[in-house]
Amino acid sequence: MKTIFVDHDLCLSCHSCELACATIHSKSKSLYGAIAEEYPARSRIHVEYVGSGGFPLQCRHCDDPQCVKACVSKALYIDAATGAVLHDDSHCIGCTMCVLACPFGAVEEQEVEDNRSAVSKCDLCQKLSDAPACTLACPTGAISFKTSEAYSKDKRREYLVELTSTSKEN
Amino acid sequence: MSEHHHDHDHYTKGIMFADDRSIDPAAIEMLHKAKADNVETAHDRYAAQLPQCGFGDLGICCRICLQGPCRVNPFGEPKKGVCGADADLIVARNLLRTIVGGAASHADHSYMAIHCLKEAAEGKADYEIKGSDKIKTVAAKLGIDYEGRPDNDVAAEIADVALQDFGNATDEPMRWITATAPKERVDKWAELGVLPTNPDREIRAAMHQTSMGVDGSPVNTLLASLKLGIVDGYAGLQLGTDIQDILFGIPQPVKSEANLGVLAPSKVNIVVHGHMPEVSEKIVEWAHKLEDEARAAGADGIQLAGICCSGNEVLMRQGVPMAGNYLSQELAIITGAVELMVVDVQCFMPSITKVASCYHTKIVTTTPIGQLPDAEHIPFTPDTADAKAADIVRKAIANYANRDPQKVQIPTYRSEAWGGFSVESIVGALSALDAEQPLKPLVDNIIAGNVFGAVGVVGCNNVKVRQDYQTVEMIKHLLANNVLVVATGCTATAVAKYGFMTPEGAEMYAGDGLKAVLKAVGEAAGLGGPLPPVLHMGSCVDNSRIGDLLGALAGYLGVSIKDLPVAASAPELQHEKAVSIGTWAVALGVLTHCGVVPPVLGSPLVTKVLTDDLDQLVGGKFFVELDPIKAADTMIEHIAAKRKALGI
Lengths: 170, 648
Fold this sequence. Notes:
heterodimer; A: alpha+beta; Alpha-Beta Plaits; 2 domains; two-stranded antiparallel sheet; globular; B: 648 residues; alpha/beta; Substrate Binding Domain Of Dnak, Chain:A, Domain 2; 4 domains; six-stranded parallel beta sheet; disordered N terminus
């Protein structure tokens, strides 16, 4: 399956991914409309900062997801078609065990209508966009959407390009 | 290239189909040629910028102090910058700095014109003063005695009064405002504490007010925005037009043409671009004088053409045709037929030298503050203008031999376009119907409903919206509903390209009531046909002409400008100047439409003040509408409400 990969060297901490994520998960689907909604959609990706440089973190869509294991109401599940870890709000009882269980802090509570909290997490923009909105919004290409095979292949090539250019210089 | 980059390119380049970028067939033809010639344009660079930063778009990014950049999160935390400024304050400060940028541009433009007038009046400049009539009207407004005095003496005194405004060290208001703005407005602005003193001081104070740790009140900052809009209106627009009319004469109706088809296949093509008529007028003068040298060089003569307001200035006074508006500046060069483009200040893209490097076109810069690394810099001064202009025209002639016929493709599109509708010439045309009370026929027709109202449509092109589309569709709808339209700047050029500024345009676009009035005025004034349904009132500083017309109408009716059945619109605004002009229009009491969203939506407070509360303060406010028909309908409803309130 394709998932989200991050090259943190390219991240400038502009937070554009966060705006794009919140916008695509809003009712209006436009930035101008989204910020004016009564319960603005929250971003499901967060540029976090420890030590040096920013890093955009979101759900890793684990093969063995701890959040799904922790969910007592079957609100969290693995999508059979794509392998994405998804959340069905209609089954959610708001116990937040998934929030405790996620090792990445990628599952959060969010205030929604009727003074209710709901769980919010990355859904890879399935049904919303061909590629996750954060990957399209990233101005530097730090966030990409690809299979892990493609990611590894790119990484091998980048390594070889660097290796051969360094050896030429020497 | 990574898969991500591929996706990203696909996503952004999706918008880059030439046909979606403009409604102008000449522009579309040149965008295709740009692609074939592998030349990058603003449209390509825009695509490469997408998606643009949402924080900047909402106005909630603050780069004022070095503790930043700070941005507040419209969807969550943080809600404050390092200093504690929230979205309201950050947006208000950014807006004021934008308006300062616009006001400073126009005030500096005027200052250069005053300097030129002063030297001309003292016989130290290469300019003779042509606007004798204007000297008298401006002197009368300023209370300067002009009877029996030589023009140059009076002009020198007028220049001194203007310079005194820039040197005003007192708390007295700008003399140019008290002399030229309607008294009711001056009183209103004084009451609100937004009556400017010295324009340079107001610009300085506003930069100070918005610096780190000064004004923490978004509302107080917004009031300063109103003040700086008024600075633009009088130290920029009014002063600039008055001085330029004195120097170069009051425009009279003149027949010209617009669009890239005005470039001539076998003449030396010189494009004037920017905003200062001091440069473009001299280029026109010397192009006429050196016509023979161009013939000697194997050309059929010299073809002048304008882009942006340097073009509008010489269209208004000399009938020089327009090659195009803002987004056509690179496209003019891409024809491969422009020998030389001379620029002065404002709105010329830094890219033009790069585009020119793909052809034989020479770019010449003329002002100390407006230079380009790969252009030839020929600094213009009032006392060297003749020599410099002759030099520039000769460089164009010499460059004719370098034109590569293989690269030349001039679109055939061009339209007749009438310009030169100063207030004086409009009143002159109306005098043919009623010499005693020239405004009476117009007002009578407004009261009768034949002219439902009027809208001033002004401003730029903006690469975010399809070139000319919103402008043209909105104006069509207004005219069909008998709303008279006056236009300036790149908006004027937008409609000039499609025949709206011709007598036939009245037949094609105007509703029946408006058409009858345009016919009656045009025929009485001896124009040989109807007045065009859209009157070209000049460059962007010439928006003061619209202000003068509104002031005259309000004065005739004995009401405030805010009570008139009128509106203003900048459908494709781009420049800071458009924001400051719009703020001045609102300060005058006019409902003002923006067809591109200004970066203020990140603050609910600022948005509310601009689109609602200002109405209670000054009788004018902004509204944003991206759909041209809905925008026109909103203005028509507003006009209907104003008519009702006037009891007509």
